[in-house]
Specification:
The chain is an alpha+beta fold. The protein has five helices and seven strands, in the order E-H-E-E-H-E-E-H-E-E-H-H. The chain is globular, with a radius of gyration of 16 Å.
């Protein structure tokens, strides 16, 4: 089997969790990073949902793309599906991305499913802050996830003013 690519825009950027041959910054057009998914498993519960990032329609998104060796395709896909599809809130599909080197590749992406009950849509920042603060799931505290993603984007030189606003406030309210 041939190598394939995986695009990460949230925790996959700073915690891919799978072996890869190389990683590179990349741009995906036609979707944008948004804190638009109620987390019922990883960063919250159904009783006290958190919020996690989804790749929502429109715009563009800078993230990381990982080249995965074809001989570990099956176990990598199994891992990603277990991680990203625990409640089937994302649609898995292939999408063109442009690597910073200029190369164009088709990458596996997880787009949010608007018809899923976990789709939160575009919530006001104050409401996002209220939801994230205090939410905890199987993978840890929700503020930790948001702060890690914000720090990674900052390290990559990616500006996200809404996320920076949340991170500034979470840094004053969370103990992550």
């Amino acid at each position: 089997m041939s190598d394939f690519w995986v695009f990460g825009y949230g925790s996959l950027m700073w915690n891919p969790g799978f072996d890869h041959l190389r990683s590179e910054r990349a741009l995906l057009r036609g979707g944008h990073r948004s804190l638009c998914v109620y987390s019922w498993v990883h960063r919250g519960t159904q009783e006290r949902p958190g919020l996690v990032f989804g790749l929502d329609n429109g715009g563009a998104c800078r993230g990381m793309v990982y080249q995965v060796a074809g001989d570990i395709r099956s176990q990598t896909l199994d891992y990603l599906r277990a991680r990203e599809q625990a409640t089937m809130v994302y649609r898995e599909h292939w999408h063109p991305v442009e690597l910073d080197s200029g190369e164009q590749v088709e990458a596996l992406v997880y787009m949010v499913d608007h018809s899923h009950p976990q789709y939160a849509g575009a919530l006001p920042l104050e409401e996002q802050l209220d939801i994230v603060t205090g939410a905890v799931g199987q993978s840890g505290a929700n503020p930790e996830y948001v702060l890690n993603t914000a720090a990674h984007l900052e390290d990559m030189g990616i500006t996200d003013t809404a996320l920076a606003w949340l991170a500034e406030r979470l840094n004053g309210t969370s103990r992550t």
